[in-house]
Amino acid sequence: MPDGFLSPVSAHQTRSPEGMRTIPCTALDLTAALVVFTTGLVIDTRLDTSKLQGSLFELVEHKFPRAGARLALRNGAYEFVIPHIFDANNPPVAFTSEDFPEPYRSSGRPELPIHLSDAFDSATPSIHPLPPALDEYLWSRECPTSLDGFLVPNTPVIHVRVTTFQDLTFIGLTASHITLDAVGVRTLLHAWTLLLSGEPIDSIQGMEWDAQPFKVFMGSAAATTQTLGGVPEPGLVVEHSCVPKVTTFIVRVPKAFLDDSSREINQSLQLRGSGEWVGSSDVLLAWWFKTTYSYRTIDDETSIHIHIPTDLRGMCIFPGPSALEDHDPYIHNATSLISVPPIPANGFHTESLAELALRIRRSVTASQEDLDGITAQLRMACANPSIPRFPNAPGSEHSLQSNWRKARFRELDFSGACKRTAHVVLVLGPIPSTPAPGLGIICMEDDHALWMCQTRTRTHWDNIRRSGIVAFI
Description:
24% of the residues lie in helices and 24% in strands.
């Protein structure tokens, strides 16, 4: 089996540890098991670290005990191990902090994109470096950087790092991807801000420690070593042995540019009598791929596979009382992947922005409407949790593009941890400890633009820069 894939583990049978509750990880959790990522938030004021820690510990203990679990590999299966009692020896979250009395922008610290508003045209897309120095503000040296690190006994599955300055606060939440997806991160952070704001703990809706909404899909499909329908079901796997050196940049795309483009495309579709449409996210991805492959030659027919995670919460795929509604908190992985039919690299030269955006929208719509297909994929995945789910066809390239707009991280209000309003002004992530080329995230939107974090090889970035198609700030 290729390096980077989870494989079945033979282990002797052991009992559940005393004083602990256990819940098995699902096949959806294991899809990205090798990825450790950090979600970074920058808040526009100094927050009270003691309030942050105290409220987070209380929230996890009483409302989200699964967020206070430990990760274990027992009897050949991964599972969450949850302490019955959280205390100094079994903290619900690994929490570290550091305070700087001066403003962030002193002492030559790297400029943040939010401080560079005068450096770019508000109507033109631009690419910004992600300062590597931010790492020390978003995670501690004690934080695990691999799956093995999270399997060390009594290691909390969530690590929070808070760094405060006179004018800014950095909050980094690091976890194995087994534990959280983007909406799960948002669910936990939103409840945290509610508690900070004075909401009584009893009125905050939590997640039961034994919640298993995907249990209904287990045991109803035969285990197999064959791919479904001859097409490998996609998933995120990092093949460590062949990953070249990569770099993450922040990409800023003005809403005016996206709105004008989508309006023009939709008007053209209406004039043709078509009932189809495209959204700003479709146009954004189409623009990004036309940009990132602009330097490739016109005869380059390398197959490009684009995969887009989609949230399963709220979909009518859960029978009876097992339904997982949007308002039911569930922090673990609850996503399926939409696969756009492969596009040759030279197709990004020959196809227009409108054609590419419509190709993406058709794939998204067809997948989300095919509830029977989604259900079949879930049953197959649950029956085959160790099968590789994101293999590359020889000579092809892939890109996983997540959209965090539904998570609405910019709307989080941390005012309860200070004496003034406190707004999220920058969202970074996920920043993986083992980044893979082709990984991209629409991580936030503000009043004027959508912001992406995109990871590519250094050579790829150099080629995009030389193409001159987009400005590097």
